[in-house]
Batch of 3 targets.
Target 1
Amino acid sequence: MSIHGLRLSFGARTVLHDVDLTVATGGALCLTGENGVGKTSLLRCVTGLVEPDAGTVRVFGTPPDATAAFWRRVATTVEQPSWYAGLTVREHVELVRLAVGADPGDGRIDELFATLGLRPLADATPDTLSSGERQRLLLAAVLARPSDLLVLDEPEQRLDAAVRRVVAGQLREHVAAGGTLLMASHDPSFVAAVGCPVRALDPAPAADPVAPR
Amino acid sequence: MSETLIRAGGTTGRPASARQLRRWVRRRQVATLGSIGLETVYLAVLAAAMTVALFGPPLGRTLWPAGPLPDPHPLTVVALVGVGAAGLLAALRRLGPVVIGRPDASWLLASPVPRRGLLLPPLARVLALASLLGAAGAGAGVARLAARPVDVGALLGWATAGAAGGALLATAATAGQRDPAWARRLDRLVAAVLLGGGAAALVAPEVPAPRVPAPAAALLWGAATVAVTAAALAVAGTVRRLDAFPDRRLRGTATLVGAHLDAVYAVEPSYLSDLWERRSWQGRRLRSTPVRRPLGLPVEVAHDLLVLRRKRRRLGWLAAATLLPALLADAPGWLLALVVCAGALGCADTTLDAVRRDGRQPALLRLTGRTGRQVVAARFLTPAVLATLWSAVALTGLAVRSGLPPGPWCLLGLAVGPAVAAAALRRARSRPVDHSMPMVDTPMGSFTPGPLIWLLTGPDLLVVLALPTLAAMLDVTGTGGPGPARLLLQAALSALGAAAYLLLGADRRRSLL
């Protein structure tokens, strides 16, 4: 995955300015920085959810084109899904795993539910979960399916310390198995637990005032 | 007033009454926003006058036809009274029926204001509305059954009994809102009366009809007095229990009614289906079932079948509703066509909430890595089966009871099913109302076409793809029933139309609906 000269603005506000970075296949990188430096925006550019103003983004050698083929290789927590009504937490995760061609009954989901503390919530519906529980559900859905690249936005957010350790372990396993990881985080101890290199994003320079004609 | 409120704030410990609070809020609103302007009054009066001018005459003719029905069957009359009462009760239960505004639910419910004072005005409104509808229903019944000229005393007696009946239904609905056990009992009663009434009306023509004379004036007024006394006692009991009304139920109703008012105000009804769907699942206790692909079918079919299994009650109602066209067999052709189309579309819509959800927010679609075309094709299967079965049974029942020309109506119902499913799918995928479209000028004034286009998205496709069936029901060509040619034409149109919609109407590469 490579990014060159990435620029992104929202109106008059420049969020990303000439960002370059590369993550090799099977590598990992964690973006850090203050609120508003553009971590989430960069992740959205990588997943093709936002079109940059300038620069190139290439994932697996091609621009992120938002096709189903792209999404079969990439899983992300950058956006919160609108969970289906009338389906339980467990059924959502099984549905995701089944859809990508994996076996939902092979024990992977049982393992994730046990380690992420989702077992008591298996029969609940997502709309009854707290924000932390919903974050665990999203992580379970993302980790339950095989993917070549994980793009995670502050995966440690709203999680208990014990669950953070579990998630860090799952991410280490993903990278050890040859997967690629790009994430943003605010928690140095979580980043250390994952054990991936860090890239601190700097605030983009303020836009030049409009020159008088 | 301010002094009273300040005292209520803690110096005397005596809370202000709801009436005092409301008056104070109203004064503050008038002081800030000004009182209602003449322009607003003018617009309201004009709107009311136009509504009466447009809908008054047909409504009057419906409520009060020129003459009574020739030889009405008593069983049908009893069934219609039962269905009308059950319908009113069901509508009141859906409405609340005790509704306070969202600001009141947020601020006044959290204050130590006595509930009775807070809830009396909304209860009075519901009682007045239900009494009015009860009286109107009784009057409409008299207009259909009584010989002309109608005896004014008898009309007044029936209207009084109807108004008391309406008030009784409103108090029952209020009890259901307050107490879940009562709610369950009432819902079961409504279901039994609706199904029983429908069945009675269906078999009435086959049962010999005894002559039932009009009741004597003394008997009628005696019954009306009993009804009024019962209603008064029920209202007194309801008022006494207002202080113990649970806040949670009042907040839920305030949110629901507020969302509907928002939809009307913003002419944006597209999110209401999501609201209703969420509400239908509220309080349900689910148990996880292993999600597996049935017979190698797509994963979305497994999801739809799971949802279908959990919507057994809705399926029961849909099964009962297949007899509705047969019940209305004597109605004009356009009404029958409308009922059949609405019923089949509603049946096909049973599992389509997932499509609406994925269309609005495709994050789950991306997580599953499926293309729009794959998903649309898979989500089409269950609605197609449902609509096909519903149309076949409904048209068969209609053909048996009505004067429609003979023919293979059941096969025509089977043939039209996929067309209905494609239309329901198009409806579920419709985007929110587009308010940016240029205004259209008409002799009645200008209007924005966005809401109309949104409303017709789905039915437009149905009209095109189900044309042979609709033509047969309306017999517009005067060629009689559905012969083999019309049947083949419908089957071909359904198959080609649905295939074209699934192939051309969805993204074949991206995870987008």
Target 2
Amino acid sequence: MGLAHAALIGFITVASTTSTEQSGLFRHLLPIFEQKTGIQVRVVALGTGQALDMGKRGDADVVFVHARALEEKFVAEGYGVKRFEVMYNDFILVGPKSDPAGIGGSKDIVVALKKILQSRAAFASRGDNSGTHFAELELWKAAGIDIAREKGPWYRDTGSGMGPTLNIASGMNAYALADRGTWLSFKNRGNLAISVEGDKRLFNQYGVILVNKAHVKKELGQRFIDWLISTEGQKAIADYTIDGQQLFFPNAG
Amino acid sequence: MKDIFLDLRLWEIVALSLQVSLSAVVLATALGLPLGAAVAVGRFPGRHALIVLLNALMGLPPVVVGLVVYLLLSRAGPLGELGLLFTPAAMVVAQTVLITPIIAALTRQAIEDAWREYEEQLRSLGASRMSAALTLVWDTRFSLLTAVLAGLGRASAEVGAVMIVGGNIDGVTRVMTTTIALETSKGDLPLALGLGVVLIAMVLVINAAAMVIKEAAQRRYG
Amino acid sequence: MILPLRLEAVSFLDVIKPLSLELAAGPSTIILGANGAGKSVLMRLMHGLLPPSAGTITWSSNGRQAMVFQRPVMLRRSALDNVIYALRVAGVAAAERPAMDALKEVGLAELAHRPARVLSGGEQQRLALARAWALHPEVLFLDEPTASLDPSAAREIENIIRAFDAAGTKIVMATHNLGQARRLADEVIYLHQGRVLERTPVAEFFSKPATAEAAAFIKGELPWA
């Protein structure tokens, strides 16, 4: 959009997640791809669950999300052709600088979650079927906590995207699980800071899948996937930084 | 903050918004005006129920319209073949559905009021119902213009319908209202505020124009 | 010749009791009666704006009739265009000339391009008559045409009505203004509570009314309904 490029030969619709889009990755990546191939990529950003539903309905040509179990099920059930790993980023636990749960710089996410439950410190959850939400639920499970039973007024289901959830956490001085990308571009931090990072369990893998329906733009969609996992695409992903920090780590093949 | 108005992106978004809403208003007028006129002068069983329905549909919640149009245009839905979902065309469709009842109901009201005044005279002159309806459409043109502007105001200001059927795609289906929603949720306010200023200015101008036109016409034509 | 007009056993709800009468060409017919006697309803029945509840209303052939109401109803366009509109509806193609002639006839030529609805009450009523004049109707119905006008405007209207009469148009007019009836009528139909009580030449009606109700009406003693 504004760059000189190869003549526009068509467009594809990609269902992806709000956190990925809000990180700014697509604004960085897509013009490069479009300039090279003339294919316009139109990203509809939803929660992971909704993005996969969009794929199931056939309203997208490609899905690009970060919920491995759901993606593999998607392909197994015949909705997708094949899953390719593309990149990973990480989740971080953010929380108020005053640290009401007493996490105090721990590098262990499970320990941190147990402390949040114990102290009933305010926690803002996505609650919206997103990859981040699923990751959060998996982490509670890893901590041995049945969050559906244990949650109380301290646990807030915002039912919103990452940005709004962070807004709410900031406004309420609550802890929240966020992807690093959205956190880096989030401007309304208030009293929030990173509470826990680096735990291997916070690792967030992205996969890209061509949708398996008759009317899908298979050739153009496959070219997008091929580019993402190519050396050039992987380098473009690694080149994306905010304030000098790399957000996504390519790991295709 | 003032620099935001120099950002080309802002004006591209404004241009798309105008394109979508104006297209919807044109279509909604083409559908709603004749419908309203016909109901105003026609006499048929169920007429009163239809009037009540039209008035009720003026309050259609935009998100619900968005949802219904989405289900229709989705590949899994009856009109999926058209491949319209997540394009500006889908947004035009949704907004047209949203504002046609407004234009039809307001037209019906204006023409029925006029019909009450003119009916005897026009029938005395021998005009058929249909020809009388057309005459009244021209005669009440300023009230009808106000109805059209009301539709335009509603279309410009709504976010629910265009968000759902358009997908808020960067550079393709992002309009003023959906951008304001997105940027605000990201905590990124300059663009949101800039668009908010433009949107409010637009709505004020539309409403002021409607009033001024009506008053000027009243003074000139009586 | 669309006249004579025959009404046979015509009634309308409770307002007009079954009546029969015949209107012939020639004499100006004034329908007199108090408010609520049913004059307006009878006029509308004859003109065809209301369907009778019972009975038949028959014209002798097809032809043009026109009606002027108590309050003139003009479209939001110029005076001239209002007359042109009436002609176009009546199927007259080249309407500009006859429309202008009609305006001249009623003395509104200078106001031809003024928006009709900003004209005064008297001017609008003259315009309504011009609109009727342009159609050269065989019958002109008038329902209390001067009731809303001041005396000088009313007099102008009466002059135009006389012009219609002189041109051969049958005048059928409803009024409760006795002086006007005396000035314009050839015959009077006196309507009382939906019934035709008298039908006589004008001079005889005023000098020797046959019924007590008519006599009381003339003396101005009947209460307004």
Target 3
Amino acid sequence: MHISDGVLPTAVALGTSAVSAGILLWSLRRTPADDLPKVAVMTSAFFVASLIHLPFGPTSVHLLIPGLVGALLGPSAFLAIALGLVLQCLLFQFGGLTALGANLLMMGLPALLAGLIYYHFKGRGKKQSILVGALCGGGATIFSALLLALLLASGGEDFIGVAKLALLAHVPVVLIEAGVSAMVVSFLLKVKPELLDIPFVLKEKE
Amino acid sequence: MSGTLQVSVLWLLPVLLLPLAVYSGLRMLIGVVREEQGEGERDWSVPQIEFAGGKSSPVHRWDVRFKLASFLLLAFLMVSLQHRQTAVAALVLTLLGYRVAAIPWRRGFKRLLGMAGFLSMFLLMLPLTAVRQSNDLVLVFGGIEWLGFNLRGLDLALLIILRAAAVALLMEPLLATAPLPVTLAGLARMGVPQRLTELLLISHRYLYVFVHEARRMQIGMDVRGFRKSTSLATLRSIGNYVGMLFVRSFERTERVHAAMLARGYQGSWPQPLSFNVKPADYLKAATLIGCGLLLVICDQYFVG
């Protein structure tokens, strides 16, 4: 779910834009210059994946894949999501110009966290990798739903009902997301395991 | 006027159907638009940002840096409006921009549709869940106390929708009046890291390639009898589909990258564009920002 223009209080819109810009610069710096075109092309692939709709009972949900983006791109995930969101805003008006920072925080932070968790806990076994992949996919979606609710609720107590509804709407997404993430990880392990070694990541400096 | 107003429980029906009606009405209208264009069943097409054809209007001739800065500022001014009257004025202002830039209405309409789902959530929920204050007018249906229809909530939802529409409609005069590379070069001149704008250009370019690829894979699955349902088998097929999309795109990135290196790519692109500022650029920027400020001032001191 993308926050559109006109929903957030102006102070929140400006604040989240500033914080997002900061993290974006960090993410840009953590991405080696040689890998930039690769990140850009992968971004288009993620964008296309997010256009896929899956039926869930009577409704359908579309994939968000923040967890997978994090697992595949590591620190560059924030950059990739920024590019994707700008494109979605420019092309489809999903999310608005003034809410870009808020949307970026909402999708980018969970992706970074999922990347970190996947990187540290994927282990060597196939089963564990798939399980961690599922947890990252589902967990990142829960995290971003919570951030969305928090951002919506920042409009004042009138918005708490809407925030609750938005949270509720993410329940099916979390399930689908965890399932698809597990399946994608298992597929990639079979077909091209080197993709999951966070190919674009810089060596951890710490 | 404030207090609670008891009305028959039957009134609940139109109130609950209102957002649904708005949403499905929009869907139907876009369906009509699509049929006009003669598109098939599943719409995979990604709309173009750029304007086809070289139209000339005051907005087209505007220096792109001034245009970007003015529109961005105007967008933030517009979302800070607090009253419905000024938000309507903002909407009229953007519609005026459409006339000046000679942009087809349909493009703006598609943008509104992009937000329709999200905004109908506000239209449904805000009247029902807005906190009741002492001077609110609340409609209570047939004595069901907890399900009050708060008119202040409806007002708030309408205000949000108006603001969202005004800013969303700004996007077309902003983006469709210059080729995307020019807009991005303008952004780079304004201090956005050049690497970021180049990345945006590459992703935008490959987007269409991957949409094409995804459609080919989708057709392959359809031909083999794949039907989406809520089942584990669907999840597995979609997982493989997405995974394959990633593998193919990754392999393509390697080839693209090698091709760029072979053509002398060294981490940045040459910037052949040059900008020259004319007095008219300042004048247009001043007019636009002046309008925005006027709206905010009216909103703060004269309305409500």
